[in-house]
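Same chain as my last thread, 328 residues:
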Amino acid sequence: MTPTEAVGIALDDTRLLADVCGVNDYNLRVLERLLGVPVFVRGNEILIETPDERLRCLFSAILGQLLESIEEDMPASPELVTAIHASLTPEGSSPSSSSPDRSCADLFKESAIQVPGAFAKVYPRTANQALYLRGMASHDISMAIGPAGTGKTYLAVAWALREVLSKSRRRLVLTRPVVEAGESLGFLPGDLGQKISPYLRPLYDAMESLVPVDVVRRLEESHTIEIAPLAYMRGRSLNNCVVILDEAQNTTKEQMKMFLTRLGEGSVAVVTGDVTQIDLPRKSESGLVHALNVLSSIEEIFVCRMDGRDVVRNPLVRKIIDAYESEL
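reply #2:
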């Protein structure tokens, strides 16, 4: 064998081969970018051409875990390819991720969510997302910090829907601070409910992407789901609930303290936010930034910090985030 001879694996199942390659071979293009060498298909074989033995071993390990994931009915998405690569490379792995003898597929499978009546099972797409789901399941208060597109709100809503639809919790309460960013509420048409509806729309979008719209409406009518601005939380005590505070970077210190002290018996809270997108007049007054500092010594509070590697939207979004972060 010459040093540059192509090596790879053969797949006799054409459907399995198509799953691994992805739509228009997009998974292979992602793998090429991650490894920095050509990856191609010849007949029923997926091949890599490099004299670097380390890259050959990494290539084989990634395909092995990808095949294992497909066998577990996990979608072979570009994000999964990226996550498996990250779990196998020291520079991409999370310090608190799975141990070396456990595969990325194992971690993802254990963290997956089956929402009763949902369109499909919800799988984490990165190692940090898997840790986020596990953190919500094991802590009364969880915080997810990261840029747009990392699945902070989506995964929190999915986990919370499973809790209420499986009767593990009595109610799901979703809330956001209403902050005027460039527009004044007073100039928007309609009554108060119509004025604040655009601020709460992302929470509806997350739920409606998981379960049919009529399920969401039925849960609202029975008051199993409540969506309201953060100001409506004052003076309440929430028992046996899942409470999600979204866009928490736009809370004040007083609002954050008020929210965290609403938790009653049997309740859990999930706080999500992006500290790079603070719309408050004085960014130093963010309740989320303050809470991360003053509550850091409390071990019972779980904090998941995500970054550009966890973005699961259009790959262009990840590049945009990286570009803005490099400017700071």
